[in-house]
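Hi F.,

I've been meaning to write this up properly since the lab meeting, where we talked about keeping a consistent format for the predictions we share between groups. The idea is simple: the sequence comes first, exactly as it goes in, then the structure tokens exactly as they come out, then a line or two of notes. No screenshots and no reformatting. I'm using this chain as the first example so we have something concrete to point to.
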Amino acid sequence: MPLAEDGAVADAFLAIDEALTARGFRHYEISNYARAGEEARHNLGYWRGDEYLGLGCAAYGFMRTRASDGQRDGGVRWRNDTIPERYVEATRRSGGRPQAATPTDDVAEPLDAEALMRERIMLGLRMSEGLDFDAAARDLGLADGGWTPGRARAAAWLEDRKRIVRERSHVRVPKAAWLWTDDTAARLF
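Output, unedited:
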């Protein structure tokens, strides 16, 4: 199927926002609306960097790792086997425990604190509430508040163009700039 032109996609995005907002739905994340209190807690966990357990064939999981040797904290993300028969066999071999209980090197992706900070930026800026950089940096053991020199320059550039709003360490994308959120997040990587 042919792709729609960018202008038509933007117009559709804005029309959907207007229609759902008029019906009492809150645009709490770029691609999600909900009535107050009905937001997808499952998805909010991903966007806020929570741990999650992947149960089932091809499911993903993520857990934090705490450094004991003075290095920064990190995490590991893994994917369960994508072949149902192999997933079931691995679960049987582990005594019925979900395969995800023991991620292996061939399906695990170690993530250092800076990689997790980039994920927090990418996902946090998708939410209408935005991201508290200081809180994320503290949680990840980053001493600089998450503000690398390049990231600080990019934030100043974005703020001048009204693509982000900064309130102390809290950064959010204003609704009028949501159409450019992917580019905004990429500039802050």
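Notes:
The chain has a mean pLDDT of 88.
Helices lie at 6-22, 41-47, 84-93, 113-124, 133-140, 149-160, 181-187.

If this format works for you, I'll send the rest the same way.

G.
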